[in-house]
Amino acid sequence: MAFPTAAKLNSRRRVPYRASLDLYNLLLAGLILLYTAIFTRLAFAQHAGMRTHKADLGQIAQAVWNSSRGRFVEMTDNGFIATRMTDHVEPILALISPVLWVWNDVRALLLLQVAVAALGAWPLYELAVTLLERAHPDRESAAGARRPHCGWIKVPALALATAYLLLPQLQSAVLTEFHAAPLAVLPVLWAFWAVETRHWGQVASAVVLTALVKEEMALLAAGLGLWAAWRGGVLARLERRRHEARETWLPLLLGSGLALAALVWFYLATFIIVPAHAVEVYGVAESSYFRRYGALGDSPADILRNLATQPGLVWSIVGEPARWAYLIGLAAPLGFLALLAPEAALLCLPVLLANLLSAYPAQYYGEFHYSAPVVVYFAAATAFGMARVWRLATRRLTRSSPGFQHLPAFSPTTMAAAALLQNSRTALRPLLAFLLALWLLGWAVQGYGTAGRGPGGGRYDPTPVTAHHRLLARFTAQLPAGAAVTATAAVHPHVSLRRYVYQFPIGLEPPGRADWALLDVTTATDMAPGDVRATVEAMLAGEWGVVDGADGFLLLAKGAANKQIPPAFYDFARTPGAVETDAPLTFTGVELADWPRWRQSWVTTHWMVGEDFDPARMAPALALRDPAGDLLYRWADAMPPALVWYPPDQWQPGDRLHLTTLPLYLPQSWGVVVERTPGLVWPPQEAIVVGEQAALVGLYRRDSDGVLLALDEQLHQRAWPVAQDTARTAARFDLGNGEQLALAAWLPAAERWPGAPLDLWLRWEGAAWPAGADVFVHLRRDGETQDQQDGAPRLVIPYSSASLQTDPWLDWRQMRVPVDAAPGEWTLAVGLYHPASGERLPLAGGPGTEVIIPLPPPRDPPVADQTCALIPASCASQP
Asked: What is the dihedral sign for C-alpha 222, 227, 233, 238?
């Protein structure tokens, strides 16, 4: 592959600026702007919806803001002034800090992060065009004139840029609050392009910028320096270019020097600067991130030694399914073309291995910011791989003769084929270009459909922004610009552009110096609700007072005279405006909020308080139960903030209350049960009475995408729907005296694995339930029972008052495939029996006493998704 000489590059015909903006440039610019608009909007909504926190957006934004005011990456941590360099060395934060001179808002950083990622598509496109032109069999002449047919090569180049913008890893990075790592994608791609076009000054700038992003990015910068030395120096000399050999010394010396300087910088940043500052905060003179490598060790020396001496251990880690999935996920959205240029992809090997071998799942699942600087190397390698495919495929496609016209007459098909072959330069090359583009786009769209974070993507998860969230601006506007503030975790990034800002309750005591406190008791506080209230009460008993409060927001200041929390603060627990009710307490409904990405659920129940409400006897009770009737959650386990701040003894007649739980991690299927208390009017019309003292008022199940579905309509119908993916079995049992009991069984079609839940829905219908009879449900392998659920018909908790004569009974059984499940013939057996005697009731119309439902054999367990890997409590709900 020959490089053009400097003279040849300078001899290119000067093209007017307007002419250079061809259709492909305009399309690419449009894609970049569209990407920036979509993901900026999503990032802004995530921030407005209070799903950003002190870690990481708040503390990084403060470091950038302080840098813009002349205090290099300064921040407040653990109550005292510290520096961002306790964790990372990121000079890029100071370089981008002037953006806050233009727009003094945290959202400026979110916009910058998205824009930098989007702009990476441009040098990648130019890199692909350059490589494809060079790989063209009849590339530009010495005079620099472009051949018209070379325009086809821009089609796969534009497809590569589009595939880059569809990369799920890049989209996840720009939606993971704000970090320095995604800022490396543009200089890395810029460096690849500059090396190929022999712009050595730009190569140096791009490599230096990459090294300044973060300490481990210096290793990527070193690789880019070696790449420049190889491509522009060593390889050029090996290929014996026609131009003078002395032209190869510049890239050779420059690239080697940049690589050496980057390695020195990596050592200084990682082993000198970070330990020197970390000891002040953590008490240990070393980077805490080396402790993320589990069995490989917790220090650089241990990790390197184990890498060299324990290949079996290393392979066992790399061989885990999730890590293989990570590697495949880097190459698959780019059509695996990066594998044709492994030398370019492996330039990221130090950071790739750091992610791949980490014991911290976020690094090797690709849904955080860690993979952004890695996946761009695969994108650049794809450009090189695509050029190699183009060179090999077009080597023989050089004919342009009309000689087929002199062939003997054949069929039209034969003549058309001959025409294509004889004119391959103008016919087959464009076809090849389009096939390359389709290959890339097909894989890119598939990857986006599986894990993309934008609209239509498999992990699309827009953040809802409510009236409560919008109310925050009222409180931040009251904070003096230079005030030292302590704020709860979700509020912190909204007030972080100041010199002193702490995460509540840090900053209240020395060495902290907070004079203002802004709290939102309804969102993430990283504290138990009772602890938050106790701290506020202690503050109000001292020198602090209330400035403002509404809907769960509370603004406090030292020296404020008012010690009373305003009534509007409690609006997060009650709806303004009194209502009239004859009952002391009325349950009015339930609703659910869900965060599919993390499978978190919030359950809100609604109540009305009447004149005769007595909190000592009539306090409401809520429970969440699984299909077996086992208790999953009750208010006493984790008290909702509304009950902490506005407990029943403060309720007033006419109050309309909405009580929301803390975030919960629940299994795939569960129900909301309201228990009867004296004076409580219930249930609402859609509820199912499931016992003398309880009613099922909400039924939920996660679908295959992890989204919770409310089954209220099925509660109205008192029956499980016959869905397309559900297998149905019907039978009748003979009760004697000419009476029968009809059974309809539904088994949702789903793959099962050892340890997985197995839901079976039964619907019983008949004149009456046979006295003294219970249901048996057995899970069997080769006829041997592995698990069972016996007992009276149940729906979350057992029936005792529902009448079979008025409504069919729903019976929900949940079993689990044994963890040590072995191959065999798996079945479910359902029947009726008398527990006292063991006698079974026969099936009507034939021999036998049980209904047999065949099951497919269990498969291997699925790979834990990122949510499960990071939060074990969520594993029970993994689809």
From this structure: positive
Residues 764-777: b if buried by 16+ CB within 10 A, e if exposed: bbbeebbeebebbb
What is the rounded CA–CA span in Å between residue 110 and residue 95?
A: 15
* Cα–Cα dist 131/353, whole Å: 28
Three-state secondary structure call for residue 364: helix
Number of H helices, E strands in the chain: 32, 28
Whether 778 and 813 have beta carbons less than 8 Å apart is answered as no
d(CA 317, CA 324): 10
DSSP conformational letter for 399: -
pLDDT at residue 558 is higher than 90? yes
Copy the structure tokens of residue 41. Answer: 């909007």
Give the span between the Cα atoms of 161 and 553, in whole angstroms.
Answer: 45
Mean pLDDT for the chain overall: 87
Tell me the CA end-to-end span of the chain in Å, nearest whole number. Answer: 49
* Complete DSSP assignment for 106-118: HHHHHHHHHHHHH
Helix (H, G, I), strand (E, B) or coil at 157: helix
* 730, burial (CB in 10 Å: exposed 0-12, middle 13-18, buried 19+): exposed
Q: Which of 28-32, 138-142, 584-588, 748-752 has the lowest mean pLDDT?
A: 138-142
Whether the CB-CB separation of 579 and 608 falls below 8 Å is answered with yes
* 17 CA to centre of own chain: 42
Cα dist. 178→90, 108, 300 in Å?
13, 11, 27
Q: What is the 3-state secondary structure (H, E, C) of 617-660?
A: HHCCEEEEECCCCCEEEECCCCCCHHHHHCCHHHCCCCCEEEEE
* Strand segments (E) across 651-738: 656-660, 669-675, 680-681, 688-691, 694-702, 708-710, 726-736
List the 501-503 sheet strands across, edge first: 501-503, 485-487, 516-520, 553-558, 544-550
Residue 511 has pLDDT above 90, yes or no: no
User: pLDDT band at 722, cuts 50/70/90?
Assistant: very low
**Alpha helices, H only, 397-485:** 412-422, 424-451, 467-470, 472-476
What is the distance between the alpha carbons of residues 186 and 206, in angstroms, rounded to a whole number? 8
Residues 6+ apart with CB under 8 A from 123: 186, 189, 190, 192, 193
The lowest-confidence range among 292-301, 499-508, 676-685 is 676-685
- Please state the length of the chain: 879
Q: Which residues of 802-827 are buried (b: 16+ CB within 10 A; e: fewer)?
A: bebeeebbbbbbbbbbeeebeeeebb
- The alpha helices in 656-770, defined as continuous H runs, are 712-717
pLDDT over threshold 70, residue 46: yes
Q: How far is CA 177 from CA 20, 47, 210, in A?
A: 37, 8, 20
Confirm if 494 and 473 have CB atoms less than 8 A apart.
Answer: no
DSSP summary character for residue 365: S
| Nearest one of 813, 603, 795 to 694, comparing CA atoms | 795
Kindly report, residue by residue over 741-766, the tens digit of the pLDDT. 989 888 876 677 888 888 888 888 88
Assign 64 to helix, strand or coil. helix
Torsion from C-alpha of 345, 348, 351, 352, nearest 10 degrees = 10
Per-residue model confidence as pLDDT tens digits over 756-792: 888 888 888 887 888 889 999 999 999 999 999 898 8
Asked if residues 100 and 112 have their Cβ atoms less than 8 Å apart, the reply is no
Rounded Cα gap, residues 667 and 601, in angstroms:
11
CA distances from 637 to 369, 405, 527, 607, 640 (A): 35, 87, 15, 20, 9
> What CA dihedral angle connects 651, 655, 658 and 662, to 10 degrees?
-20
Token pair 């018209």 is at which residue?
148
pLDDT digits (tens, 9 = 90+) for 694-720: 888 888 877 767 777 766 544 434 444
pLDDT above 90 covers what percent of the chain? 60
* Mean pLDDT to the nearest integer, 608-636: 88
